[in-house]
Amino acid sequence: MRKITIRSAVCLFLALFLALGTGIFAVKWVLCGGDWVRLPANQHMYTNGMLNKGEILDRNGTTLAKANGDGTWSYIDSASVRRATLHAVGDPQGKIGVGAISAFADKLVGYNKLTGSAPYFSGGKKIYLTLDADVCRTAYQALNGRSGAVGVYNYRTGEIICMVSSPNYDPASAKAVAENDEENDGIYVNRLLSANFIPGSVFKLVTAAAALETWENAETKTWVCTGTYEADGSTVTCPKKHGELTLGEALTFSCNCIFGRISESLGKDVMEKYVEKTGFTETISINGIHTSVSSFDFEITENGNLAWSGIGQGKDMVNPCAMMVYAGAIANGGTAAIPQLISKEENSMGLRTSIYLKHKTKRLLEEETAACLTEMMKDNVRNNYGKGNFPGLEIGAKSGTAQKGGEQKNNTWFVGFLENEEAPYAFVVFVEDKGSGSSAAGSVANKVLQAALKAADER
After folding, report:
1. For residue range 276-298, what is the model confidence (pLDDT) as tens digits?
2. Rounded Cα distance, 458 and 308, in Å
3. Which of 62, 213, 431, 453 sits a CA distance of 20 to 30 A from 34?
4. pLDDT for 179
């Protein structure tokens, strides 16, 4: 009897252990099934380490890349479109980890949690991206070989219309590029999603928001710029004496002295609070692709670090996509749609197999603050950059130039939005160039926005 009792206990333990293991496996299957499918060791889905199923198209149904079934991929005939969409589409070798071929591999092969990769999905799926290939080509051509990134997205729906990163390469010549990595530093990095850069004066939008939400009458308060400002032993300078300015005028003239003083007056704790409120210190999930996290250091040091951080220098490092979303929130009353890259999916029978719902950010600014910054950014264009440089566009913007010193090229930025019911777009342009943000990055922005507006009118 004692032996039967012991054996029963052992059997019960093993049964419970099996049930626990089955439960853990079931949870893992739900949470990680897509990751398992994406593993190159899965020989049903990969040939010679490369995905062998699927097709990637733009929003207009233009095929950007298609698996040939043997581990090779065919790309669109246009070399300029291939290069423009490279970091969004990706490469079969998986060197661009955030490209669709790698990031959406489970979707491309037709995987789902109920049937796995069933035989009737064996032809793979079509994934329609939100991108417009022609707008991306315009951005690629406007960058003209310079390192940088261009992003345009609908701040109400979340659709990314344009996502271009440079340097890039023609995926038809991927082997040649792979042999010369030292000459193509960062060529596999999507600079819009996966990199951070010194923001320069575009960060003054954050400092201005902090001032507006911290101080009463900040919009009408004035400060005096004498051309230089001593910040704890470090000299902050402006190109000239700006004299007495309101906050909006200081933003238009991009006055370093005034924004350095504002940052120091607000203090470390307030500045940290507002960079957290902007969402810069959190990743953005774009259909499961995670952006890099921006970083800041607002410590009060002997070299005036707090002042420099408030004007977008110091140790500030900002992700371009996060800045684009922030511009969308300014235009949209303080919140914006979270970006998305997938428009829809179709199986091999042409049936739609997905629904992508719009999701909003948390509140990044108060509604009154957003309205105030919207008007200030529109004034920037009217009174500084010139409406004539953006014909036909109802645009608000802020430029930025981060000087890295020596022979290094500047980080030039142009960030903003369109006020257009048919094309409510926020944008970011980042270019490594010797020029200024308004001239170098601003001219790229105009070309891309004109193309995006034309495409919206034709839809």
Report:
1. 999 999 999 999 999 999 998 88
2. 45
3. 62
4. 46
In this predicted structure, what is the pLDDT of residue 359? 94
In this prediction, the residues of the chain whose per-residue pLDDT falls under 50 are 29, 32-34, 41-43, 119-121, 179
The Cα 67–Cα 45 span in angstroms is 11
What's the confidence (pLDDT) of residue 180?
53
Closest to 320 measured CA to CA, from 153, 110, 128, 109? 153
Which residues on adjacent β-strands are paired with residue 356? none
* CA gap 37, 125 in Å, rounded: 14
Q: How many CB atoms lie within 10 A of CB 363?
A: 14
Per-position b or e across 260-296, b if 16+ CB within 10 A of its CB? bbbbbebebebbbebbebbbbeebbebbebebbebeb
Nearest to 71 by CA among 97, 93, 87: 93
How confident is the model at residue 438, as a pLDDT? 76
> Is the CB of residue 442 less than 8 Å from the CB of residue 414?
yes
- Joined tokens for residue 58: 């733009």
The token pair that represents 156 in the structure block: 């109400």
Q: Measure the CA–CA gap between 88 and 193, rounded to whole angstroms.
A: 10
**Sign of the dihedral defined by the CA atoms of residues 425, 431, 436, 442, in that order:** negative
Q: How far apart are CA 201 and CA 46, in angstroms?
A: 46
**pLDDT digits 0-9 by tens, 78-106:** 999 999 999 999 998 889 999 999 999 88
d(CA 382, CA 419): 14
- Distances in whole angstroms, Cα of residue 194 to Cα of each of 240, 318, 379: 36, 11, 32
What's phi and psi for 116, nearest 5 deg? 65, -135
CA 78 to CA 64: how far, in whole Å? 9
Pick the closest to residue 424 from 364, 322, 334, 337 (CA basis). Answer: 337
